[in-house]
Task: structure prediction
Amino acid sequence: MKLQIYQFEVAEANFKQNKAKISSLIETHYTNADIIVLPEMWNNGYALNQLKDKADIDLQQSLPFIQQLAQQYTTHIVAGSVANMRTNAIYNTAFAVSKDKTLLNGTDKIHLVPMLDEPFYLSPGLNQPNNFSINGIQASQIICYDLRYPEVARASIKNGAEMLFVVAQWTTQNLHHWRILLQARAIENNCFVIACNSVGNVNHQHHKGNSYAGHSMVVNPNREILVEAGHSEMVFEIDIQKNAVTKQRKAIPVLEDI
Result:
């Protein structure tokens, strides 16, 4: 199964520019991948104090855009996440779309980052991520800070997930945490971890001078990093073997022994 990960700089508070960026990247780089992966909050980035005016409403803008791309390129898209308003509250909502435009899942970020003042602007998700089938493999999708909470990923694994997509805007300040935690989630769950981060400068008042770390990567169930991006914009692809999960779970049956 061929994956393409799109690591790019998200323009804050500029949905139109980010749409154009994604369209251009796919037009330039798409090579018959089975799955395309986008980063966290790609519609408006961390312009948190503008989200009351800028956030999508019930995915009415983001979903049709992604559906059109999925249909046009005949590919599944794990569409990162977007700032999304529902019932007068704003959530950080992740979703994925199949190549026939079906909405495969939708999940809200559960743990909000106090260091970025997220709790002042966003509402937390109340449910564990739901699993979805993509090209014959069970998958789940978590968002950035939720990576620090192993029980979020484990809930999906207990429900049958073999592949964990992690979408993020993770900063360089904690790059070493990012790399280790992604490998830890792969080891403890005997699963693939596919991580898509963003790059560029951080404009948040508490983190100015920092930047988003990049280092998107694919980790196999034995914690080996199969491919890893650097700190700049990059599109990379990799073929993964789905049976690697079965082999690892037979070799080290941690899930059976819970």
About this structure: The two ends are 30 Å apart (CA to CA). The chain has a mean pLDDT of 96. DSSP finds seven helices and 15 strands in the chain. Residues 15-29 form the longest helix (15 residues).
